């Protein structure tokens, strides 16, 4: 649709739209603008026609229409995809929000779901059939998907309540062929879909070329950002020691080599960082870790910064990505026993090893657990990073308190102002994700992203939800604060306090070794459950050390997770509550798992150390429904915030912080 947008400007009437569409699709291919050569079907499909009718009705009613926001180009892209499916003899195709590394953040080249549908969330799936299509999202995106994806083109489905396999069982044609890209799915991830297709007498077909790529004519090039050393002063452990330890574990398990398919694991194992994806310092590539401690790294050699090969040493070889398949074939031909991570390895890798003769062991990434358990250097770095980050957030909150009352602040201004304060911080490198800045009803969209079209002013009597974080060389931060603009309603105070009570219950918990995050999740929800409320997202995710802001294998959520919490793990503590069309509430700190002093005859126990340092809005606290212990926890936390940050603040901000952190009963 790029050509149409260039011709149309930001707004146009329905007649001009119809004229442009009809003119382009009816012209000979040789006369069509280059951007339309493969993107446009011979004629607009029914979905696009319905969209045009809807646009016509809005214009007739006197409402101006933003063409780009309505996504007329998405209908043309879907039509082009369907044409390609016919060419490849397919009845449908799976479009996950994934790349070959199965990461949360993907480079622009791999963001196929966003290109096709307009959905920009971090997790999702589209299913395109000849006569219908659907987008599947989780509870974080139930509102966002309706804002970004055209309902005339795609049905909206909650991936848990209305999973893709159930939709296929109802709509997939009998005996049909459903295509998929084997690089974009894990073996486990396709089990239920394969069963649904086979129940319809159909077949799941691995595509040699992704049909989306076939019609995406201006698809970006693969990223080629420099890969640099992550110094020992921040990593705390030599890469050679890590390689030897992983090799010893493989030897102990009788495994010849492990496929390392998660770039974060490669970054941790080799003490390197990159910039191939937004907001996370990852160098994209694959690796084979061998039982003798050596590593084969498959990454574009041009990405290696000067001096990196010397840092890697003789124990690490570097080959272009194209050599990865041949290396897998070699292991297969030698009948090696290979460990593959069941949650992240692409099906293509699994099939390549199996067909080459290797013995595959579906297990866990051997780097995941040691990466999650931060060493003393990493923990110290995380604390330092959060102290500096707390200074930036506190300076912002003080600024907001003055300027929001003037009615001069909107969501985007707030994002940029906080960014300015963070950029001043020592060792700052980037943001750890795109800031969620939700005023009023926008705060109820869990992973909302403000844009010029959705931007809203902060208004008196509303809540403002701000979820943000940063990447520092010594640590990664993630913090959410909910701020009252003007005077909050009694309902807002009640809901906020119940969220805070859950946050305190989890943050103050002591639990036996061997406890998983799933066993603790209910602590954060109890106060909401007491009045029939809940939230539809997890309570906590792991966080990396100058790595991914969302890191496994541990988490805190309703979804069962058998991974026990261990000392050194960092995890978020973020219960929330969201009232559609009104407000959103979330209180998030990061906590580190630590050992508790042993008691005579007692079980080994663990607890949490809160490492995030920033004030919680006292104006939203309803002490009448808090216990004395909860009030004491909040006052103690605020005292620590005040004592830690005051020496680093200018005098006016320090004065503001003293007021913002005074005891809640004062």
Automatic annotation (TrEMBL):
Q: Where is the Peptidase M24 C-terminal domain?
A: 604-664
Q: Mention one GO molecular function.
A: metal ion binding
Q: Which Pfam families match?
A: Creatinase_N, Creatinase_N_2, Peptidase_M24, Peptidase_M24_C
Q: Which domain of life is it from?
A: Bacteria
Keyword terms of this UniProt record: Aminopeptidase, Hydrolase, Metal-binding, Protease
Q: Which GO cellular component term is one of those annotated?
A: cytoplasm
User: What region holds the Peptidase M24 domain?
Assistant: 381-594
Which intervals hold domain Creatinase N-terminal? 77-206
Q: Which family does it belong to?
A: Belongs to the peptidase M24B family.
In Swiss-Prot or TrEMBL terms, this protein is called: Xaa-Pro aminopeptidase
Q: What organism, scientifically named, is this protein from? A: Hypericibacter terrae
What is this organism's lineage? Bacteria, Pseudomonadati, Pseudomonadota, Alphaproteobacteria, Rhodospirillales
